[in-house]
Specification:
InterPro entries: SCP2_sterol-bd_dom, SCP2_sterol-bd_dom_sf. The chain is of the alpha+beta class and 96 residues long. Helix content is 43%, strand content 26%.
Length: 96
C-alpha cells in the first residue's frame, strides 16, 4: 500500500511547521477528514484521519470525534491524487 507512506509524509509536514502556521491552517481549513482507503490486493479498508479542526495531525484510524468529511477510495486512486496525477474534481464526478 502506498497510502501509509503518503499519510506519514503529511503528518511529518504538519509536525514540522511552526505553531503560528499550523494555527492559521487550522483556522482556514476547520475540518476533520476521514479517509477509508481500500487495499488493492486484499480489498480491506484502512482508515486515516487528518484533523485540521483542533490538532493539526494525522490519526491512524478513526477520529476522536465526528468527521466533517469521509472519503472512500482505493489505495491506487489515493496515491494518484496525492501525486497530482488525478484531478480530484473530475474524479469525484466520474467515480463519485
Amino acid at each position: 500500500m502506498q497510502s501509509p507512506v503518503i499519510f506519514r509524509e503529511i503528518d511529518r509536514f504538519l509536525q514540522a511547521i511552526d505553531e503560528t502556521s499550523i494555527n492559521e491552517l487550522i483556522k482556514k481549513v476547520d475540518g476533520v477528514f476521514e479517509f477509508h482507503i481500500k487495499n488493492n490486493s486484499d480489498g480491506e479498508y484502512v482508515i486515516f484521519t487528518i484533523d485540521l479542526k483542533k490538532a493539526g495531525l494525522v490519526i491512524y484510524g478513526k477520529p476522536l470525534g465526528e468527521s466533517d468529511t469521509v472519503i472512500t477510495m482505493t489505495d491506487n486512486d489515493f496515491a494518484c491524487l496525492a501525486k497530482g496525477r488525478l484531478n480530484g474534481m473530475i474524479f469525484f464526478f466520474v467515480k463519485g
